[in-house]
Amino acid sequence: MRLGKQLKHGATYLMIRALTGLFNYLPRRLALFLGAVAGLTTWRLLPKDRHRIARHLSLVYGDDLSAEELTSIGCRFFINSGKNVVDVLRCRKHYHSEIAPLISVEGLEHFDKAYQRGNGVIGVTGHIGNFELLAVYFASLGYHTAAIGREMYDRRLDELLVAQRQALGVTNIATTASPLRFVRWLKEGGALGVLMDIDSISVRSEFVPVFGRPALTPVGQTILGLKAGAAFIVGACVRTEDNRYRIVIRPEIKIEPSGDFDRDVIAVTAACNRELDQIIAQYPDQWIWLKNRWLTPPSYRT
């Protein structure tokens, strides 16, 4: 690694450690205020990101949103993100005493019914709201919960994240782990959290509609889930206006087996995307419109 990158990564690590200490010392209200200010400041300082968000929103909504509405959604996304980072950094110390009482849930019966069958659950979510809290919430209720974690660019940051998850009862399974480990976890009846809204040519993916447009979508989790006989549940942890959280859990994904495994993989993945689309449409200011979900053209084949 070049010296410049080493210095940058080192500075980032030290900054996160310092912010963690600061936000855990301050009262939550003040810490969230600072997170909101940081988010708003970042929004104002990054015109390219503002333009990128507006462009991606326009891909979905066309002329249905005015320029003012596009701006408002993007601005609120940055503010929400700043607050979410604060709660993530405070989570290890304050989850049970402070954050958990602020969480309400709708649809828990869908998850519980699927979990109780004992064949494992693929918990599908995306980069919406405070997705780190989603796995922590289920673990806190006693469900055996694991999150698939993509290794971060800096080993020290990765160790911080893994240590926090483990301290809160969430098992971290790296994306580089053997598929057998994922299957074993599911066959033992565990829940496996997956971030599905990723356009990546480095993992097995297929083009599946997202808001009606073909988007490269990972299917590895679908393949493993179908082979293990696991259930598929889509959910998200979104922030409410009063700085509380609402966990939204959609009904279990069910399809009629076609006898063609590859076709079933596409059908389940598409159904998961549709459920996630509905949640995003309800909370558009909490999804990461910064990322181009349709970056890879359909002409590309993995």
Which helices and strands, and how do they pair?
Elements: H1 3-25, H2 28-45, H3 47-61, H4 67-99, E1 103-106, H5 108-116, E2 121-125, H6 131-140, E3 145-149, H7 155-167, E4 170-174, H8 179-187, E5 191-195, E6 205-210, E7 213-218, H9 220-228, E8 231-239, E9 245-249, H10 261-282
Helix pairs in contact: 1-4, 2-4, 3-4, 8-9
Series of secondary-structure elements, N-terminal to C-terminal: HHHHEHEHEHEHEEEHEEH
Number of helices: 10
Number of domains: 1
Main β-sheet, in a few words? 7 strands, mixed
Helix content: 40-55%
Q: Please report which band the strand proportion falls in: under 5%, 5-15%, 15-25%, 25-35%, 35-45% or over 45%.
A: 15-25%
> Rough shape?
globular
Terminal Cα separation, in Å? 29 Å
What is the number of beta strands? 9
From the alpha carbons, calculate the radius of gyration and give it in angstroms. 19 Å
Mean pLDDT: 92
Supply the helix-strand structural class.
alpha/beta
Which ranges are low-confidence, i.e. pLDDT below 50, for 5 or more consecutive residues? none
